[in-house]
Specification:
The chain is α+β, with helices and mostly antiparallel strands. The protein is built from eight helices and 19 strands. Helix 1 packs antiparallel against helix 2, helix 4 packs parallel to helix 5 and helix 5 runs antiparallel to helix 6. Its EC number is 3.1.3.16.
Length: 412
């Protein structure tokens, strides 16, 4: 009669096959969850269930690398340790790259656990795990430890991929935001060159990183008056570009109905405060010229002083107020007035013109700019702007670190 009772060797083989099948099923379930883009807490919960119910791991600590430190993202069983203490204890084992027994370890934290399991990518440690109250047979120990390491590794890779995907989305969103901001700003930048019987204008705008916060404008008010403005909006991106667009619309609206520059600045300040709640500000220089009286009225609102060159003399136009958008009520507001001689050159610029990384012993500051204007003040506005940039690129050899805007006018 044939004996159908399995031998002990067959029992062990069947147990091993069933264990392998369970491991594959567990990996399959986790992989399916990852493919469905399951949330991080769901993946962590699945890992904990597998460790507790299938592998009988009684205590578990799971630390993952985050900004140079390790954060504990999963823990159960035993008395919970302070994260810093746990982090420090695991870092003492940073050279270990495969599961290792903690039997006999003298560290008061580590000796409470049975095994240390590291997760590496090349030479970088991505995560650590500590397991305790772990009872398994000698024959299956290596298999179980390797399976635990594989399972944790799968979860870590999934979390890394989520992180990379978020960073990619953020980078794409930022790139699109910059593109939109550049489109908005390009619509705001008016003429580059203009000339008529009373004024000749040359302008240069050089954004430092595709999109900047600089703005300038020229408005013909009537047959004998015109107004211009140069401004620098704090911040970058779409929000700064939209603030500039709103500022331009407000400037055009108030300039059409207000004769007094003081009232225009006061209204613009209130508008910026209303739009930004004090979180952004604008520095600007605004001026209005009357061709009949040859009088120039101006207000400098916390901006770099416009430089006036006439008959060999250089004057800085500094009267005005503080930046707009910073205070509900401007603390002071003074309007300047000056008579303009025929042939006067006015150089308006943003602070980026002076923000250059020095090269060697070359000096470039406000005083050097004034000297350059005095030496080149007879050039046409467009030629003056180009000569100034050539001087910076070739003579000073400085590297710009901010947006550069130059608006130069010659009044006849």
């Amino acid at each position: 009669m044939q004996n159908n009772v399995p031998s002990s060797g067959e029992d062990e083989l069947i147990r091993l096959l069933l264990k392998r099948q369970s491991e594959l099923n567990s990996l399959l379930e986790v992989t399916r969850a990852i493919n469905k883009n399951a949330a991080t807490p769901v993946l962590i919960q699945m890992l904990e269930v597998i460790l507790q119910n299938y592998l009988q791991v009684g205590t578990f600590r799971f630390l993952i690398e985050k900004d140079g430190n390790y954060a504990c993202i999963s823990k159960y069983g035993g008395e919970f340790e302070p994260v810093g203490t746990l982090n420090k204890a695991c870092l003492s084992l940073h050279k270990i790259k495969s599961p290792e027994s903690l039997a006999g370890n003298q560290d008061p934290i580590l000796k409470k656990y049975d095994y240390f399991i590291p997760i590496y990518h090349k030479s970088k440690a991505l995560a650590f795990a500590l397991i305790g109250d772990f009872n398994t047979s000698g024959e299956m120990l290596n298999n179980d430890l390797n399976f635990i390491q594989t399972m944790i590794n799968v979860v870590v890779v999934a979390l890394e991929n989520k992180k990379l995907f978020r960073e990619r989305l953020q980078a794409e969103r930022l790139q699109r935001e910059m593109e939109l901001a550049a489109e908005v700003q390009n619509m705001l930048i008016p003429l580059r060159v203009h000339k008529d019987e009373s004024v000749e204008i040359g302008a240069k705008y050089l954004p430092h990183q595709n999109i900047g916060g600089d703005y300038y404008d020229f408005i013909r008010l009537n047959d004998h008056e015109f107004l211009w403005c140069i401004a620098d909006v704090s911040g970058k991106g779409v929000s700064a570009a939209l603030l500039m667009a709103n500022f331009q619309a407000s400037l055009h609206a108030w300039a059409a109905v207000e004769d007094d520059l003081t009232n225009i600045i006061d209204r613009l300040n209130k508008k910026v405060i209303s739009n930004t709640q004090g979180e952004r500000f604008i520095t600007l220089f605004i001026a209005k010229y009357n061709e009949k009286t040859r009088k120039l009225n101006y207000i400098n609102a916390g901006h770099n002083a416009t430089v006036l060159y006439s008959e060999g003399q250089v004057i800085q136009l500094k009267l005005g107020t503080t930046m707009i958008g910073a205070f509900d009520q401007l603390p002071f507001l003074n309007e300047g007035e000056i008579d303009i001689e025929p042939g006067t050159l006015l150089v308006n610029y943003t602070d980026g013109l002076l923000d250059f990384e020095p090269y060697g012993d070359k000096v470039w500051d406000e005083e050097a700019l004034i000297d350059f204007i005095a030496d080149n003040g007879d050039l046409s506005p467009d030629r003056f702007n180009q000569s100034l940039m050539d001087h910076l690129n070739i003579g000073i050899k400085g590297k710009p670190i901010d947006d550069i805007t130059i608006l130069t006018l010659r009044i006849f």
